[in-house]
Amino acid sequence: NAGVTQTPKFQVLKTGQSMTLQCAQDMNHEYMSWYRQDPGMGLRLIHYSVGAGITDQGEVPNGYNVSRSTTEDFPLRLLSAAPSQTSVYFCASGQGANYEQYFGPGTRLTVT
Amino acid sequence: QQQVKQSPQSLIVQKGGISIINCAYENTAFDYFPWYQQFPGKGPALLIAIRPDVSEKKEGRFTISFNKSAKQFSLHIMDSQPGDSATYFCAASPASGGGADGLTFGKGTHLIIQP
Description:
The structure holds 2 protein chains of 2 kinds.
Chain A: E1 4-7, E2 10-13, E3 19-25, E4 31-38, E5 42-51, E6 54-57, E7 64-66, E8 76-78, E9 87-94, E10 102-103, E11 107-111
Chain B: E1 4-7, E2 10-14, E3 19-25, E4 30-38, E5 45-50, E6 56-59, E7 62-67, E8 72-77, E9 86-94, E10 104-105, E11 109-114
């Protein structure tokens, strides 16, 4: 099992550009989520999904969209990148929100 | 509003000593309290977790102590080793329907174990 995979590992964007961060898991987990990690801020929940076709907002959803068409994939879209979105993004999956979460290796995003 | 407060921000412990990291929470709907360990350049990995029906859980050198009335929980690392040097995050998650279905993290503790 590959666990949770994320692509790309690194990305540089210019302000206003859009992009999609990919996340996939092969553990058949219903629950998937996206977090951003900023220095001194811990990890903050952006969006989450409790199953295919179901998504909801977390603590910091503005500027991000998600969709969940399959159990395996949970992409995160930045519609119009801003410097404030410079961060490390982690995708995670688990049996449920309050069970062990398996994190991917992260995507380091820089917006200039 | 920070719902999980973690302290200290950084901690230096001698090899063989006890590392103690504390967290306090506000949301009484939280019912799952994990600790995650993160090495540089890696994603967080679950270390140990507790639910509020017990006051303590031990796994090897790692122990969680939980005080429901004080809304506090702590991580104790016994016989700390240089390989334990990492950033540790406490987190909390509500019971289903108790809020956004996800983990609320503390800001992290950078732990250094000196040989």
